[in-house]
Amino acid sequence: MGVNKSKSAFRSIAEVTEDLGIAPHVLRFWETKFTQIKPMKTKSSRRYYRPDDVELLAKIKELLYERRYTIEGVQKLFKNRSLKDILGEEIQKDFFEDDMPAAESSDLSTETIKDAVKALKELKNDLLLLAKGA
Predict the structure, then answer these.
(1) Which of 10, 35, 90, 91 is the Cys-Cys partner for 48 at CB 3.0 to 4.6 Å?
(2) Could you count the other beta carbons within 10 Å of the beta carbon of residue 27?
(3) pLDDT, tens digit, for every residue of 67-110?
(4) Are 133 and 125 a contacting pair, CB within 8 Å?
(5) 41 by DSSP, 3-state: which?
(6) Res 92: pLDDT
(7) pTM value > 0.85
(8) Which of 76, 40, 34, 23 is nearest to 56 (CA)?
(9) Distances from the Cα of 116 to the Cαs of 99, 110, 128, 130, in angstroms?
(10) In this structure, which topology does domain 1-101 adopt according to CATH?
(11) What tens digit of pLDDT does each residue of 48-79 get?
(12) Could you give the residue ranges of the DSSP H alpha helices within the chain?
């Protein structure tokens, strides 16, 4: 893939099919067979896949192409299982893990949050005054 995206970025159908080495029609077919695949769709029906969707699709590809399961076999394997169970790990654990260091819960005390809110309100007032003067 030409663009280097964050792990948490949404992917288009073209990006997903290129990454997985499958055709777009195969991916659309899988969407009809596996209810767990739920890409976001725009009003114009353009699909965008979450990181969990891509992981699930990679798992389906592995089961079908490498382990030689049938579609029905994979459906039975997935039946009554959550996405977390299927992928075998905590999903969407930290959506922005690549972009920001994880904050300790003690780092964000109530006092710190109040100070930040106060500073933002002051900044807002300053900006409003500047806008009126312009």
Answers:
(1) 10
(2) 21
(3) 999 999 999 888 877 777 787 754 444 444 444 444 444 556 77
(4) no
(5) strand
(6) 46
(7) no
(8) 34
(9) 21, 10, 18, 21
(10) Multidrug-efflux Transporter Regulator; Chain: A; Domain 2 (1.10.1660)
(11) 999 989 999 999 999 999 999 999 999 988 88
(12) 13-20, 24-33, 51-61, 71-78, 83-87, 110-133
Question: Which one, of 90, 97, 102, 101, lies nearest residue 8 by Cα?
Answer: 97
From first CA to last CA, the distance across the chain in angstroms is 47
Token pair for residue 32? 């009809």
According to DSSP, residue 79 is labeled T
Residue labelled with tokens 């792990």: 7
* Euclidean distance between CA atoms 110 and 32, whole angstroms: 47
Q: How far apart are CA 54 and CA 13, in angstroms?
A: 10
**Length, in residues, of the chain:** 134
- pLDDT tens across 29-40, in order? 999 999 999 899
CA atoms within 13 A of residue 111's CA, in its CB half-sphere: 2
CA dist., res. 131 & res. 123, Å (int): 12
Query: Where on the phi/psi map is residue 5: left (φ > 0), alpha (ψ -120 to 50), or beta?
Result: beta
Rounded CA-CA distance 71/125 in Å is 60
